[in-house]
């Protein structure tokens, strides 16, 4: 299995970060794919196959650390691409979320 678990919701409270600009202050770090829990069950193949899929967005997936687990919030296509390339690690922005909304 590629991921720790396939989820379908975000089990954590809203963190207040919505755009790539909101995430810009979170430094990317390596994350093992097998540690990630997805928050989406489906993947848009167009995003997976599009070479310019990050042109208007962030280069790094967005991950939320909540109650000791890492939830892949955005960038499922990037993580799957890494797995298809036989890479076990992806560089992602990891937000440690304590339950408080970030302003």
What does it look like?
The protein has 103 residues and is an alpha/beta fold. The protein has one domain (5-96): Conserved hypothetical protein from pyrococcus furiosus pfu- 392566-001, ParB domain (Alpha-Beta Complex). 17% of the residues lie in helices and 28% in strands. The chain starts with a strand and ends in a 7-residue tail after the last strand. The relative contact order is 0.30. The mean pLDDT is 87. InterPro entries: VapB-like_prob (IPR014447).
Q: What labels describe this entry?
A:
alpha/beta; 17% helix; six-stranded mixed β-sheet; Conserved hypothetical protein from pyrococcus furiosus pfu- 392566-001, ParB domain
Give the gist of this structure.
With 103 residues, the protein is α/β, with parallel strands linked by helices.
Rg (C-alpha, Å): 13 Å
Q: What is the CATH class name?
A: Alpha Beta
CATH superfamily: Conserved hypothetical protein from pyrococcus furiosus pfu- 392566-001, ParB domain
CATH topology: Conserved hypothetical protein from pyrococcus furiosus pfu- 392566-001, ParB domain
Uncertain regions: pLDDT < 50 for 5+ in a row?
A: none
**Major sheet, described briefly?**
6 strands, mixed
Total beta-strand segments: 6
Strand portion, in percent? 25-35%
Give the integer mean of the pLDDT values. Answer: 87
Shape: globular
> What level of helicity do the residues show?
10-25%
Give the end-to-end Cα distance, rounded to a whole number of Å: 36 Å
Following the backbone from N to C, one meets helices and strands in this order, namely EHEEHEEHE
**Structure class:** alpha/beta
Architecture, according to CATH?
A: Alpha-Beta Complex
How is the largest sheet built, in terms of strand order? Answer: 1-3-5-4-6-2
Number of helices: 3
Tally of distinct domains: 1
């Amino acid at each position: 299995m590629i991921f720790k678990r396939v989820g379908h919701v975000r089990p954590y409270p809203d963190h207040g970060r919505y755009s790539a600009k909101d995430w810009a202050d979170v430094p990317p770090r390596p994350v093992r794919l097998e540690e990630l829990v997805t928050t989406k069950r489906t993947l848009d193949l167009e995003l997976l196959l599009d070479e310019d899929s990050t042109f208007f967005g962030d280069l790094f997936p967005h991950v939320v650390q909540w109650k000791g687990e890492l939830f892949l919030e955005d960038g499922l296509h990037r993580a799957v691409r890494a797995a298809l390339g036989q890479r076990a690690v992806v560089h992602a922005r990891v937000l440690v979320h304590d339950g408080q909304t970030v302003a």
